[in-house]
Amino acid sequence: MSVTTVTTVVTPVVTPAATATVTGRPAAARIQGDGDVDNRATYISFGLAYLLGHGSAALSKGDSALLDLPGWLPMALLGSGLAVGTVQATVAALRAQRAATEPDDVLSGQLLGAAWITAFAALFLAITGLASTLDMPDVQSLLWPTGSGFVVGLLYIAEGAQRRNLLHYGLGTWLALTSAAALLLGTPGFYWVLTLAGGGAYALAAVLERRRLNFSSGQPQRA
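Request: output the structure for the sequence above.
Response:
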């Protein structure tokens, strides 16, 4: 009598839950955290601040001014645009926070949203303190345009790294470098650098943001 041995091969069933986890993070949370927040409103607000604020300063300042504008107008246009852009950026950070499901991502979103307010409050105190200590009120017209661009650039770099958004990160890098380099030029040269390099970068980023969202997985959220 011969005994036939039957070997049963059991194929493991791979469930979606098993394949969705990469390094302990669900795929849904990973996709949602990849930067599907629409930043166009922020880019447009800051871009207009650069074009109108710095552009009017470039045209009205210097020995060969092309326009005769009140001295307060360029700073008012810049400040208004920066205020609107800061609000839009804070809203975008909060939207990214609500889209996240991991506790660490939620905390990162909250901290980045608060960083916008903290950064500009610190910039205001630093510039005001320098102008008062050095008894040079005119230094504000130099430090506000360049300092705000530098601060925004650094915040964009942090947000881009946290959201894994290369466009945001690249824009922040460009703004930080050009804003700092503009200090090497005199008036009105540095205004032209900020207008063309900064305003142009925001305009390009607003166009590329639409393409990024089209290729991004999931439904984009408007900020």
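The radius of gyration is 24 Å.
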